[in-house]
Amino acid sequence: MRYVSTRGEAPELGFEDAMMTGLARDGGLYVPAEVPALPPGEIAALAGRPYEDVAFCVMRPFVGDAFDDATFRRLIDAAYAGFGHPARAPLRQLAPNHFLLELFHGPTLAFKDFAMQLIGGMFAEVLGRRGDRLCVIGATSGDTGSAAIEAFRGNPAVDVFVLYPHGRVSEVQRRQMTTPGETNVHAIAVDGDFDTCQALVKAAFNDHGFRDEVALAGVNSINWGRVLAQVVYYFAAATALGAPGRTVDFTVPTGNFGDVFAGHVAKRMGLPVGRLIVATNRNDILHRALTTGEYRPDGVAPTISPSMDIQVSSNFERALHLAYGGDARAVRQLMAELSQGGFGISQGALQALREVYASGRASEEETKATIARTLRDAGELLCPHTAVAVHVAEAHPGDAPMVTLATAHPAKFPDAVEEATGVRPPLPPRMGDLYDRPERVTRIADDLSALQAHIRKTRAT
Ligand SMILES: *Cc1c(COP(=O)(O)O)cnc(C)c1O
């Protein structure tokens, strides 16, 4: 399996190198040169299988010769062994034809663990084989950072640097990043918002001298390995509800577009995904882009669903690459226009996007009302991100079963949930002492050279 950059000017790579590299050297994102189809019979056979079996079957064709079957199977088993539910991604019914896909049973209580736990194992395997070490760096709006730290803490071949926007993550999110005691864990609070953090990380990667000097690697959702791991639960959920004999719709709380794009990949592999609905909070650039064809960032407003407080949605570039028929030159042009303020999507590409994606948004009031109503009507406590999506799903009634992705545990956002319902969701017992552990964090300005100096100084030599 070969991977190409969405911007067409970076070398083609196999799975292992695409995963270890993260952002392509031309600033683009790696995508598979072609997507393998799973025949309907093989999809049907996934129904009722353990999650690990589904994961192996769905991901195997993308991995090529990076891992032999036994190794890959062992990595998958290890990735999900620490999850707090035997189904890993259980479905729960909200209404007659509406289901929640609970993706928060991993160690940091958000869906990011599905990909990050697997990436952690795959990185360790490859680095061990090569005798190399790396600096993993990532920008986070809250959940990626803790998931990355949880995946790499104590790994002797990796330093993990996580940049989060100072004062803009929940206390549970912050403590999950600042309390691990391992010396290879480095939490960095940046003066700015998520886009500031993401721009700093991209700038560090685009400084090729620095990138090579400290062996930078990215595990943001731009990393193809992460998108791939997220394709699996679309298959697990849809087959549980009757696919391939039945079409299933999905609504996805969206920020950086990685999760919902994984649904697009599942569809291209042959899973009968009907509508794929992009749910945004009031930072609704994706909803506006899909509605009007104009993609123009206009600043981030903080919300109670902070992991979706994003205006530059990196993985959207992958969807654009497909919508423009793989025309890397067109993607390069759009991204150049983006750096000047925004771009318009061509009529043909917009139509192609709308064949796959629908969209909607929820205001803060609608989000809180949805949390309150869902507790009252269905007895379920939703995290604010999930509530955004439940609101949008309810605004898109249809005949196919609707699966809304529940991306975080409500206890990760206790203040917002308590404000909406009067109920303060408790942390699962295994995380009960989070508030007692000492914190360790470095604060830096929006300044690439300060970040680079910090990495040089604190990484293990
Ligand atoms: C990261 C995150 C999202 C957004 O996912 P993307 O893949 O960035 O679109 C939504 N909800 C929660 C809880 C998250 O952590």
From TrEMBL:
UniProt keyword annotations, A-Z: Amino-acid biosynthesis, Lyase, Pyridoxal phosphate, Threonine biosynthesis
Enzyme Commission number(s) from the entry: 4.2.3.1
UniProt-listed SUPFAM superfamilies: Tryptophan synthase beta subunit-like PLP-dependent enzymes
Root EC class: lyase
Cofactor requirements of the protein: pyridoxal 5'-phosphate
Signal sequence, start to end: none
Sequence positions bearing N6-(pyridoxal phosphate)lysine: K112
Molecular-function GO terms, alphabetical: pyridoxal phosphate binding; threonine synthase activity
Biological processes annotated in GO: threonine biosynthetic process
Domain of life: Bacteria
Pathway it works in: Amino-acid biosynthesis; L-threonine biosynthesis; L-threonine from L-aspartate: step 5/5
Reaction(s) catalysed by this chain's protein: O-phospho-L-homoserine + H2O = L-threonine + phosphate
Ranges of residues in domain Tryptophan synthase beta chain-like PALP: 101-332
UniProt family annotation: Belongs to the threonine synthase family.
Protein's recorded name: Threonine synthase
Organism of origin: Hasllibacter halocynthiae
